[in-house]
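Recall that a protein's primary structure is simply its ordered list of amino acids. Everything else, from secondary elements to tertiary packing, is in principle encoded there. The following example makes that idea concrete.
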Amino acid sequence: MRMGSLVALLAISASAVSGCQTTTPEFGGAIAGTSGSGGTSSTFGGTGTGTGTGGTGTGTGSTTGTSTGQVVSNGSTSFAFNDGGAVTDGSAGTLATITNAGGGLNNESASVAVDVSSGGLTWADPIDMPLLSNTVSTPAGVPNLGGAYSEYRQIDTDTDAELQIWEYTHSRIGQYAVWFDSSAPNNNNVALFYDGNATPDTALPAATATYNGSFGGVAVASNWANGVRVQNDPFDTAELAGDEWSPNGTWRVTGTSQVVADFGAGTVTGSITNTTWRRYDASPTSPDGYITITPTETSRPFHDYTMSGTITGSTYTGNVLGPVGTVVTGDNSLSGGFFGPNAEETAGVLRSFTTAPDPSDGVSPNEDNRRGFIDIRGVFQGD
């Protein structure tokens, strides 16, 4: 954090296990992982053999004990989505229980409960997920959000569930997803969350602070007319300038973000910029099957976003907007907080739905079936 300085990042990757449900994890979880030296298994309270506090819940971790995180009603702030709808007012809480915390691979598992009662959603039951990866740095194939990375995963013929956590000095961000559960009323259950050691209200700075970092998320684009590349794809040797491409589909989005907190005025402003969009197309000429649209590709309909909100204590809420005149912003939400003894870090979640102001054929301003749409959601963390 620079007094007078915020930010985060994510991914999508397709994964399949023989005889199991095929999924598309938003954050690109590793299907196979190894323990890195010095990795942590601190999640929602409890680090190794110590005792920790996260948000408003506390927990204790040990190599033989149980670490219980936030209470659902006051726990990790979450935006929750599934086939039945969404809860984006920040009232959806998550409760993570990590068994044998600190036990490492083959000795540790997690289960997560999500409280979506405020939005009237029906969520999948908690699922026990073994620890799959626990590293100091993010492994290959997973979005590099910095911090220590932990991933819990259960995948079989009846279930595909995943918990991913990026942990920093004072805060945590992550995703809990039940992509498929044969007993669940809704599939594609996704909760994006943040929590940590909240800054006491009395310790918040009096001046302005700027937090810089990265953003990561997933976006669904639909109903756009095809574009023509002005640049070569930096990775796919068959995607060349002059080629036609479709903006439609599900994209992994990474970029930079900045949040400026004016503690005296009680406001936050910020931006998401320089975003790279990647879509899995199983392309044989790409090293990972993705096509890539860079920030300087002028044929893209994807744009930067601005954030604004109001600070209440050590938290803030507000809106995420697309560029004026370029898109019309509909449903949008921002929720974040300050963490550390003196607000050294910030973390949050966001969601924005934007619509092209004019139809793709330019014939009439009222042809909604010819407009383009983008629904983006993600997390950020910065210092």
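The chain has two domains: 32-196, 201-382. The longest strand covers residues 85-99.
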